[in-house]
Amino acid sequence: MGAITAREAKPTINDVAREAGVSKKTVSRVINRSPLLNDATREKVEKVIAALGYVPNPQARALALRRNFLIGLIHDNPNAQTVLNVQEGILSAIRDTEFALVVRPVNRRSPRMLDDVRAFLEQQRLFGVLLMPPISENDELARVCEELGVGYVRMGSAQLDSGEHLVESNDREAVRKAMEYLVALGHRRIAFVAGPEGFRSARERELGYRDAVKAAGLPQGPELEAAGNYTFETGKLAGDKLLDATERPTAIYSCNDEMAAGVLHAARERGLSVPDDLSIVGFDDSPIAAHIWPPLTTVRWPVAAMARTAALKLIDPGHASGQPALFPSIFIERGSAAPPRR
Amino acid sequence: MGAITAREAKPTINDVAREAGVSKKTVSRVINRSPLLNDATREKVEKVIAALGYVPNPQARALALRRNFLIGLIHDNPNAQTVLNVQEGILSAIRDTEFALVVRPVNRRSPRMLDDVRAFLEQQRLFGVLLMPPISENDELARVCEELGVGYVRMGSAQLDSGEHLVESNDREAVRKAMEYLVALGHRRIAFVAGPEGFRSARERELGYRDAVKAAGLPQGPELEAAGNYTFETGKLAGDKLLDATERPTAIYSCNDEMAAGVLHAARERGLSVPDDLSIVGFDDSPIAAHIWPPLTTVRWPVAAMARTAALKLIDPGHASGQPALFPSIFIERGSAAPPRR
DNA sequence: GCTTATATTGACACCGGTTACCAAACAGTG
DNA sequence: CACTGTTTGGTAACCGGTGTCAATATAAGC
């Protein structure tokens, strides 16, 4: 059995070729599933590959093919669970392929952000990158990818780019539906906690709120609106403002769950019972939504599925080409919303 | 200025050499900071590199050097924020180096887990990997790395490995101190929610609890103990059990925050006020700790700093060689613990 | 049986860096 | 001035794969 070979060294394509009595090119064909290859030869080579435990060197392949098998995730999302869900989604798409996932958090506020990303892309020469919100809304970033010839797909809550570069969720409609649920419960005075300026997702969710307000002819005005930046703390502040208004709302829609938790906190401090005195509905279905009391009625953003599709679009553009993939959100009814008292 | 060259193609080392009028070997020496090199030459070459915007091809380097610049993070941690903090820590260590971070979540329960990891390591030929808890406690996994010649560093809550492969936190002592805090508040009947079997961190935290119980001569027994698996749901179940005991505890120590939130939930269902009727203390300082009501008194695990050190150990073993790096946890006093009523 | 089309396979250069080894240039000795 | 020793730069081979294109074998056409 077998010649005397170094135990430690990993077998190379040459070892396989020699052992199988074929040229390295033939082995290469086997690896790459070339169709123009005799089945008998293929089997023979595959047997040797298995026996030797040969695994092609990805660096060598990357060099010869002038493309590597790394896909990058560029993000600056404050919600850890969301980021991890995206990573899971991507991983599920590249599982059992030769691709691997490289992560790169960035700081949206840094003036060097674009240069950082550019340097990163130039240095690593990634196959492509996935841009997740909110940084995905940055058009300059997309342009940098374009310029550097790096494939990219943006995950967004609105029509940000052409179909081949986009995976989309319909936050606006999802919020409208959640609002309709509150209206159906009997609420009229529904306040809104908006997200940070410049976030497309925040904008879309606000539009959904306004759609519903207009459609149902609900009261509106500055007393019924507050803004935050997606954090628990700013949600608490927004809750403080809305609940101290002269005419208190019976329900508050917060455009993400962290802020909804902050609103809940503010209500609790005022001795208000949720949902009896105040209904609260959020967005995202963060883990926190199920873990606070009462559990939060919210909207689940199918983030892992979006990420999965985004990754598939990146590594196999032909497969899912054309129109943007649109992912509907799901309304999750839990315990934080009920008919208004009286 | 300059010769007529293709605009689009990335410059190679040959372009730099030609433009600078030196050999590619000399350019290579500049890139690799070889000391035996004339300063004037070095500057000349560096100027050309900057002018051309040349960036060495990492795949080619990886091939020639027989090592790449990818470090992997292998994890199966259920806490998203912790995972992200670890990623941040690693990134801060490799920022401005040529290293990049590849993530690889695994499923601890899968029987194929070890094979998956082995395949991953063989295929990607990483420079090294970081193992974060709880998977870092798996000795077989470490052995696989060893066998494959992949560098590794384990992050753990106990002496898991020799110093060069370990970054350590002292959970046991941290829990003991948190318990002493409860004792100092006047609690005697303190129950414990343990973590899942087989988790070293859970074991260490339990030992910390027992240390304190013994030192203060507190009551103990099966009525004062319950186990969970680090999730909110199992924490709720543990809370149900402990709070329905014939003699109810005045405080509950939960060995992580998610479960503490579950306990809080259980208390709330029974109409108990926290912290007046029941004090609760957790561990981890997950984001949830600050976002529930009342905010949770807990222990912060310096996870990002640990990850940073782990990454540094990996990429520059000489620098931080020898003894394991030990990271003390910090006690965070918030609102969920108070003196017992009466 | 001979020519042409088709299926398989191999030889060789090349991807963009690295190292090994050698030659040239320059300096310091006796 | 010849003889070493020390810097420096050049050449060629190599890392482990891939593409191109020619060579061979086999099948088909007349």
TrEMBL record, chains A, B:
Gene3D superfamilies attached to this UniProt entry: 3.40.50.2300, lambda repressor-like DNA-binding domains (1.10.260.40)
Entry-linked InterPro entries: HTH_LacI, LacI/GalR-like_sensor, Lambda_DNA-bd_dom_sf, Peripla_BP_I
Superkingdom of the source species: Bacteria
Pfam families (UniProt xref): LacI, Peripla_BP_3
Single GO term (MF): transcription cis-regulatory region binding
Entry keywords, A to Z: DNA-binding, Transcription, Transcription regulation
All copies of domain HTH lacI-type, residue ranges: 11-65
Protein name per its UniProtKB record: LacI family DNA-binding transcriptional regulator
Organism: Novosphingobium flavum
